[in-house]
Amino acid sequence: MDDPRSDITLMPDFPGMTDSENCADWDTGFPMDLDAIRDKDEDYWDTYKGTPKAYISLSTGQEIWSNRFGSLTAVRYAQNGPEALEALGKKLLANITPTDAGLTFQSARSQATASVDNAMDFGQLFMSFSFFLIAAAVMLISLLFQFTMEKRTRETGTLLAVGIPARRVRRMLLLEGGLIAIVGCVVGAVAGTFFAEALLNALSTNWKDAVASATLTYHSSGSAMGTGMSMGFFVALATIWWALRKLKKQTARELLAGETPEQSNPRSTAKRSIIIGIILLLTALGSVGATLASGGQMSPNSFYGAGAMLLLSGLALASARLKRLANAGALGQAESLSLRALGQRNAARRSRRSMATIGMLACGSFMIASIGVFQKDAETGADQPTSGTGGFELMGEASIAIVHDMNNPTNREDFYNLDEEVLKDVSFVPFRLRDGDQANCLNLNLAQEPRLLGVRPETLAGRFSFIDTMDGLEPGDNPWSILDSARDTLKLPADVVPAIADQSVMMWALSGGDMMKSKKLGDTIDYTDEHGNAFKIQFVGQIADSIMQGNLIIPESDFIKRFPSESGYRVFLVDNPGERTGEVSDELNVALADHGFEWVSTTRRLGDLNAVQNTYLQTFQVLGGLGLLIGSLGLGVVVLRNVQERKSELALLRAVGFEKSAIKRFVLSEYLGLLVGGLLIGTVAAALAVLPTMLSPTADVPYALLGATLGGVLLLAGVWTWIATNLSLRGNLLEGIQKD
Asked: Distance between CA atoms of 283 and 424, rounded to whole angstroms?
């Protein structure tokens, strides 16, 4: 037994390795135990090199040492001459496919085309952002045309009285308005080009975060301008047609007398509006009370619905108030003879005009205020495990994978020469990475195959905030565990891999910004593994906006099965004391320089991702606020028209002794009440709608910007109301009595 080959030594398993990974899975991070090599083993190596000490059966070896890379390491063929070797080569080439070697082929052009064709549509985006501009324009068209019609009621009545059919009269007026609309559309198309260039310039400078600093250039064509003018013309024509509908209900006698439908029905009841308003109010408060009483999570959708109901309730009660004032005036029931009471009653005389003003201002302020609170601050609550940073301080990504356990101080010292004093109380969460599309807000194109991250779910327990999972969220549970349990609890097929994704990835990145195509829990997307086999990724969980945006997170076991050649870890989250973040980052940068690491603060990464949403919200607020300001111009138009109609009444007040300044205050109080009422209804409803967001620890409500926007509307509308009042009341009011 002197032959050293007869002394067979079985090496011990590496610590912490499973049987299926024993000794063969070198990227698990456990080094070889050099102390187990004896002198006789060294002697054997010096004499026989790699000659095996013993042979066992193939089946036994596969059972003991098979791992994720396979169960064979070599194949031996008998040497039967060059001809046999050539025949063997041809036979192998005929049976081995590119996918056996890990090669897959995809059409780069079709992928690029699909990505670009489904990219973010800025035309639709800014069309929606400009909603209040369009609404304000439609309101002004309707108001101005109605005022024109009311001024020409006697003319219209004469046409009907001499026998011209009402349908023909409406066509004549529609044609007249259409000709004016054509001129306006031509002017608007020219102005629209300057407006578009200004927007693109803003997106390239002040709003560059919204487009990930992409370079945007203005491009237009005759067909685009023609389409825009046509759409504007048809909108204007439809608005004019809508305003002309009331001619069907009026007779020639009413028109010759100068009556309008609103004047002919002064006793409209307010009971229906009161009942509707109270029901909506109780429903809104009841839904909120039930949510708070249950102690469950405050759903933003339920609160937004409650806020919308509160808005409608406020409008219904405002309408009821105006109707009651109109009825009281018609019946001679005077609550007070003060100027304030008279102003309120006069606002009810033209209740439709007043409600149009209140409704537009209330809806506009509701949208501006409710959307403005969704601004996000990455610094707020960043140290909390449930925040968007997960409580981590650093996030790093390497070009060359790390195969050792970074949480093992011995590995850090032996392999990477890291200073353990610097890394005291520092822990790492490693991820395996399969490169793919960046599915986050910084990618304007459609993400077809987002990056995959493989992780052990237990390492993320208690981290980040979950919105929902397919098996529901129970108090005390670790939602990340669904990655391990989904195959059993959800009965997933073998070719389906469970995944958890960021909310913004599912809602925007995988749909190209189209909400109708956004992914939901249970939806799947197609992938191909490195062997060329197709499989599906199914969404089983959704986390709130976080630094993991852009990736799909799957179990490490499934990742290894699908992509065995992706050895080691390339993405790391680092949890360290916040006051030593800079020191830890510097140490990791120097020690791991050979791996091509890029370390970034988690708050900075989250801030970069949030900047896209924040910029869009700011854009919407600016454009929406501009629409509100233009809409408030309609209030000035209403004031101008109403005061002109009541010139003789105001002259009577002047004749009985009221000072001209008192009459101006009387008119201003009437319409400023409508303005304040509309803004108040919309703002209070918006506060209820966004209550969960305002109470969120990560909320960064821009109260200053919201106050400036709504205050600007109030100030400018007040200025226009003051100008309209002064224009209407200038000159000698007593001349109105003399003319009558």
From this structure: 55
